[in-house]
Amino acid sequence: MINTSNFDYINVLDKAADGSWMRNEAISNNLANSTTPNYKRQDVAFEEQLRQSIIGATEGSLDRRVHNANLSNVKPRVYTDAGNTSYRLDGNNVDPETENVYLAKNQLYYQGVLSGIDHEFNMMKTAMGKGK
Length: 132
Hints:
The chain is mainly α. The chain has one domain. About 55% of the residues lie in helices and about 5% in strands.
């Protein structure tokens, strides 16, 4: 994480990218284990922590809240989703079709976050007179 106010939004987007990357790994693991008996699907929680770090920051504009966000508390966490639920006789609760939808959704989210980071750096380059 870069410690200057010029990088506030980049730092927030970086945390979102980390969480999304971990989710991609969890979904890929779910797909790889879709036929493993008693395997329970996993997911990653991070969006609520990220939102709370921004909302919980000092009152004011979004820029002020992003600047004061405590991102050290945002730690993506892998958890077992619906661990007591099984959709199949072998105890596995992974639905490959649903996982592929989650994977596509997460890939779009990740691409959006990367586009946001790219946009922030392009704005800095433009401000320094080195833009496109």
